[in-house]
Amino acid sequence: MFPTPISTFRRLLAAATLGLTATAFAQINLATSFSGDGSIFSVSSTDLFQTKLASLTAGGAGTFYPGTGDITRLANGLFGAAGNLGAAWGESVAPGSGTTITFGLDLAASPAGYTLTNIKTYAGWDVGRDGQEYTISFSTASAPATFATLIAVPYYNPSNTPADAHTMVSITDFGGVLASNVAAVRFSFTENENQGTFYREIDAFGAATVPEPSTYGAFAGLGVLSFAAYRRRQRATATVGFRRRDHPPG
């Protein structure tokens, strides 16, 4: 059975001050799935965090529910088994309040950064650790260490769920693009439920940002200027080395 949509939020995105484009409005789709109906969410193994991830780091408070601090679980293409997995915790990562997790993208493969079109976060455990709430920020290729807020996902904790429950938050934009020239995406978590929601996977969809035509023009102009300077140097060298035969040295 396909996961059941719960509700949709429309949230104003914070204005980015990093010289890039961030969209004005985003749509937050919330869904829940129960282990009893066999509709466990399918996570991606081909998104940007799977194919273009250069670094993955925890910061802020940097605390996790015991045994859930392996943040690589969030980008390994696995949701894990349904429901409460016991002491092994399975694919779960449960960040404490104030903890951040930053996904750095591969700028060597795309110097202009990446264009984000969709972000999805998945959580699942039981009725006590399935809710989600966090803020997403991002940096750009021109300032990879400077982050601006993209969107804050409000507290989402479906009620009347069975013992095993799973949630998905999907963020898109009405215009199709959440942000361009993205170098890194950072999630800032609240503790949410019972010492941390048990997140299973985070997916980010998009593609390498294509530089604007003006950028290509700038590069072309630099090439022309460099060639002109080279020719001037060549002519100057030729002039210095030239001696007229009717005026021998001395």
Main attributes?
mainly beta; ten-stranded antiparallel β-sheet; 250 residues; disordered N terminus; 2 helices; 10 strands; globular
The radius of gyration computed from the alpha-carbon positions, rounded to a whole number of angstroms, is: 25 Å
Distance between the termini: 98 Å
Sheet with most strands:
10 strands, antiparallel
Binned, the helix content reads: 10-25%
Strand content: 35-45%
Question: Class by helix and strand content?
Answer: mainly beta
Q: Helical element count?
A: 2
Mean pLDDT over the residues? 76
Overall shape: it is globular
Sequence of secondary-structure elements: EEHEEEEEEEEH
Q: What would your notes on this structure say?
A:
- This protein is mainly beta.
- It has two domains: 4-208, Jelly Rolls, CATH 2.60.120; 212-244.
- Helix content is 13%, strand content 39%.
- The protein is built from two helices and ten strands.
- Strands 1, 2, 3, 4, 5, 6, 7, 8, 9 and 10 form a ten-stranded antiparallel beta sheet that branches.
- The longest helix is centred in the C-terminal third of the chain and has 28 residues, at 213-240.
- The N and C termini lie far apart (98 Å).
